Amino acid sequence: MNHTFINSDAIRHKFSKAMSAMYQAEVPLYGDLLDLVAEVNAEVLSLHPDIKEQLAHTGEIDRLSMERHGAIRLGTADELSMMRRLFAVMGMHPVGYYDLAPAGVPVHSTAFRAIDAQALNQSPFRVFTSLLRLDLIADEVLKQEASSALANRNIFTDTVVSLIERFEAQGGLTAEESEQFIKEALETFGWHDKTPVSKELYQRLLEQHGLIADVVGFKGPHINHLTPRTLDIDTVQQGMQARGIPPKAIIEGPPKRECPILLRQTSFKALQEAVRFKKPNGEYEEGHHTARFGEIEQRGVALTPKGRALYDQLLSQARKQLGATPNADNASQYYQILEKAFDAFPDDYHTMHNEDLAYFYYQPADGEADINSAMLSLEEAVDVQDGAAKQAINALIEKGAIRIEPIVYEDFLPVSAAGIFQSNLQQDKQSNYDGNSNQHEFEQALGASIYDELALYKEIQAQSLKECINALSSCVQKSDYV
Ligand code: OOG
Ligand code: NI
Fold it and tell me: Of the residues 420, 422, 423, 425, which should be mutated to test ligand 1's pocket, given the most ligand atoms within 8 Å of the CB?
């Protein structure tokens, strides 16, 4: 290992800052949204010392202001696999598979992000990355035109590709190389107002699906939104209206709760932007395109498979009861139904922990604890499995020797993602594709397998228990000598 290499976490952090600066310059409304979120977060932290303390315990307090995700849409398997290699330079790996075809969006997706808790706290930057599914287009002629337009584009600069290769060969990048990498990688995500396709082809692509036009019609996968993390999404949603940032009608995800779960999201509508379409004679003609928007999100505790099944069940129950896609006209009715449905989801961390609904960090509590008797149950916890171990852990929690803190959800939700996609497409066609979900095909295009997000949370929880038990036993051993 060469000590002159720059750590991938540091490259990711710098890249994420550079991306945010670029997007603020390109979409000024995003800058306004950042100001609003910073104000609301500061207010929440000053009014709720308990939330501040919790975020300090989980290590999230320092990352809050740098917390954001972005999204891109790719056209081909080659683009996706090079994108995987590009993100790997920044310690970002594909986590989770999302099939959006059943919701009428012809893509499947993953999220590139850091995977261990420490790296996530250093820079939680992630990118929701979708691959267009041309196989879902029935019109053979259009499909052919789309494929050849995609085959003609190269979304990466030659320099970034050679830096990626150098990273892979050397196992890292030097300071100078990593600066160059950030600059060159950023090029891929920038906006191009001159399109490589004719207005006529663009129109036909648009009629097929807004997303197809957005991918096939452009030189590269412009970042289509960046999303800061807020501690109070309801207040930001109200504040958006007041500041002339038009929000979408519905906050996606679970309802407002005491103990937030998973992820709640809302966005402001995509802007209509001027673009120039290439004419056969090489000149350009005026037109416009709608793609780029801003989004905010509030993150809560990651759920276990059992908790996630309950979430999915309650959400779909609420949507069925509403009998329509949630929209501006039925918003308050939808929230009422949703809140009622989620009465069935316990809203305190200890119950969620006892019922195995969510993942938690185990930490030695700061308070006075009866360490010696706690130690007796601790020995049990180390020796026994499952049920009994859980009992011992719970005894330690009750005695005040161990505290639990929520492990934050780092991923996305397919129903919410579909809602975000739909709200930004020009046409309101609510369709669905019945092509099968195919994680295997996605992984083949990616050139790697996807991490299972649930396994990652489980591992973080298990690791924290191990460290907690070690810390407590060393405490007990020390106290033996006093
Ligand atoms: C991605 C939409 C999904 C999210 O946060 O769920 C998304 C896109 O529009 O490309 O960003
Ligand atoms: Ni998003």
Answer: 420
Closest CA to 10 of 191, 173, 153: 173
Please report the atom of ligand 1 found closest to the CA of residue 412: 6
Per-block mean pLDDT, blocks of 10 residues, the chain (482 long): 83 97 92 94 97 95 90 97 98 97 91 95 96 91 95 97 97 97 97 93 93 95 95 94 86 96 91 91 92 93 98 96 91 96 97 96 78 61 62 85 95 90 66 77 97 96 90 70 44
What are the structural domain ranges in the chain?
8-298+411-447
**DSSP 8-state code for residue 361:** E
Q: Report whether 265 contacts 252 (CB < 8 A).
A: yes
| Burial call 367-396: b when 16+ CB within 10 Å, e when fewer | eebebeebbebbebbeeeeeeebeebbbbb
Q: What is the pLDDT of residue 366?
A: 72
Indicate if ligand 1 lies below 6 Å from the C-beta of 416.
yes
Q: Alpha-carbon distance 202 to 216, whole Å?
A: 8
Pick among 1.10.1060.10, 3.30.200.20, 1.10.2020.10, 3.10.180.80: CATH of 8-298+411-447: 3.10.180.80
| Residue 141 alpha carbon to ligand 2 centre in Å | 32
Beta strands in 181-331 (DSSP E): 194-195, 225-228, 263-268, 272-278, 284-290, 294-299
- Which residues are in the CB-under-5-Å shell of ion ligand 2? 71, 227, 295
Angle at 153 between CA 147 and CA 157, to 5 degrees: 150
Phi, psi (degrees; rounded to nearest 5) at 181 = -60, -45
- Number of Cβ within 10 Å of residue 209's Cβ equals 22
